[in-house]
Specification:
The structure is a single chain. By secondary structure, the chain is mainly α. The chain has one domain. 43% of the residues lie in helices and 0% in strands. The chain contains 6 helices and no strands. α1 packs across α4, α1 packs across α5 and α2 packs antiparallel against α4. The longest helix has 25 residues. The radius of gyration is 18 Å and the shape is globular. The structure holds heme C (HEC) (2 copies). The site of one heme C (HEC) has 18 residues, from α4, α5 and α6.
């Protein structure tokens, strides 16, 4: 496959992601008033913990508390960026931001909402999972570069496979980040843990 995705496909696939982000984004108006900037402290053992081994599963109520704190941190990060680009929200992301590879042509304000409600919420993480806060353009965190890979994967899944699934309601089914991650940084299996293939015992 060529290493440059044809523009039309990129737009269609990006649109699929945007449909998700926008359909679920009550705050997607980039001109909406912004909230204060203070970021609450990360929760120990929460989604901010980053890569690591198995963790004890959270109770439902602990998970709800963690998710609402994480969502508040994301909203603050998004508000901070939106304030810094005030007046330029509708310009293409690559003309407003410094290091845009996958979201070329997307309005800058919408990129911020994708970060919050597409990437962040799907993985149950805040901005700091993929970024050093305020150094948004750097590619210094592996999670950020993995997210670009994942985006390319999702485009291919939708373009080459899901688009061929017969559907009779005139709707186009799509895979997005939430399909697999469902609010977890690493998709989990029936045992509540990230899934691994291991060599059989004795090998
Ligand atoms: C799952 C990883 C992930 C999360 C979580 C995430 N981002 Fe990003 N972010 C990325 C990737 C990947 C890019 C690069 C996009 C591209 O190449 O077009 C990016 C790019 C950006 C940029 C453009 C920077 C520049 O100058 O090039 C900003 C601003 C940004 N993110 C803000 C945020 C904010 C605010 C949050 C939290 C609400 C957030 N991000 C959450 C992965 C993430
Ligand atoms: C088809 C299922 C699937 C989809 C769709 C998917 N992912 Fe993933 N993702 C995975 C799997 C599997 C891993 C590896 C998890 C592990 O290490 O246990 C992963 C890992 C990641 C990681 C690294 C997490 C870590 O702890 O290091 C990031 C970041 C990520 N995905 C972001 C995304 C983003 C952003 C999207 C949407 C553009 C996305 N993923 C869509 C299956 C998926």
């Amino acid at each position: 496959m060529s290493d440059r995705v044809p523009a039309a496909i990129a737009v269609v696939s990006a649109a699929a992601i945007l449909v998700y982000a926008c359909a679920t984004a009550p705050t997607s108006n980039p001109n909406a008033p912004v909230r204060p900037v203070t970021l609450p402290a990360p929760i120990p053992g929460g989604a901010q913990g980053g890569p690591g081994g198995p963790r004890a599963p959270l109770t439902d109520s602990a998970r709800r508390v963690r998710d609402s704190v994480t969502a508040a941190r994301r909203d603050s990060g998004a508000a901070m960026v939106l304030r810094s680009i005030a007046g330029r929200e509708t310009q293409p992301a690559e003309s407003v931001f410094k290091n845009i590879k996958i979201f070329k042509g997307i309005p800058a304000g919408r990129l911020v909402n994708i970060m919050n409600l597409g990437f962040g919420r799907s993985l149950g993480v805040s901005c700091g999972f993929c970024h050093v806060i305020d150094k948004w353009d750097l590619d210094d965190k592996e999670e950020k570069t993995t997210a670009r890979l994942m985006f390319a994967m999702v485009q291919t899944i939708n373009k080459d496979y899901i688009s061929k699934v017969p559907n009779d309601r005139g709707e186009q089914p799509v895979v997005n980040c939430f399909t697999c991650h469902r609010g977890n940084p690493r998709p989990i299996g029936p045992d509540g843990q990230p899934q691994r293939v291991r060599a059989p015992a004795g090998e």
